[in-house]
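Quick illustration, no need to memorize.
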Amino acid sequence: MKLSALNALIVAVEQGSLRSAAREIGVSQPALTKVVRELEVELAAPLLVRSSRGVLPTAQGMVMYQHAKKVAKELLLATDQISQLGGVMRGELNIAAVPVAVMLLIPEAIRTFGRDYPDIRLRVSEELYIAQLQRLRTNEVDIAVGGIPEGLSAGEFIAEPLMKTTMVVVVRKGHPRAKARRLAELVDERWIYTHLSNDTGYARQFFEAHGLALPPVGAVVNSTLSLISLLASGNFVGLMPRQIAEHPQAAPHMQIVPIAEEGLPLSVGAIIRSDSRVSPAVRHFIAHLHRAAHHIT
């Protein structure tokens, strides 16, 4: 099975057209069609369905496409790592980070890392809650910067603590319970759960830690903008890092509820896969994260 054939399949599926795929690869359409057909013969399975509007992958074609994408990515990573080990710092890093890290750590780390290694492309995606580490498991990201979950599997992940924060109870200015003194006073309020469901997340941890029943679910969000918008405009209660709640952009609209219970402590760290070949670029970026964390502590 030739890599050129796998690449032809990838481009054909993504373009949805053999003509466009051939143009992108730089070959004639008949040549591309022949390559794909040879791959179908080798696999004894149809990979593309052709029509007047283009091509679509069959079920077998989609399986092959997904695996071909992984192969292509692994080869690119290997090429980048070999270059980096040889002293040529080029390639790409994909980073997933929680809002507090995006606000406090990522900008400074990118500034200094980009200055030292301008040929490394950085892609940063914001993740509201990093408890699910699926993007690391599937190699979609190289580093996750977020809360270090309790019971993190040492056999699967490696975590380097960077900074401490506290998840505090927040409501809009003028909320009826804005001056509550005990967490129990907020049990009947509508809470915003920051996760993919209300079965997990910081709110659940916070209430369970104090032996209280979970409050009603007002909304479940996985977006910082949604969290801030709902808290600022409605009678909701939620948890967010103290640094975000006190940020100049949030403070005019929201306030921290002065309950007696301490907020939920959270250790923010850089998490990587334990079985991954840690590239020089990953090691250097984590070092720059530590440097950024040092400046804010």
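The first strand starts at residue 48 and ends at 51.
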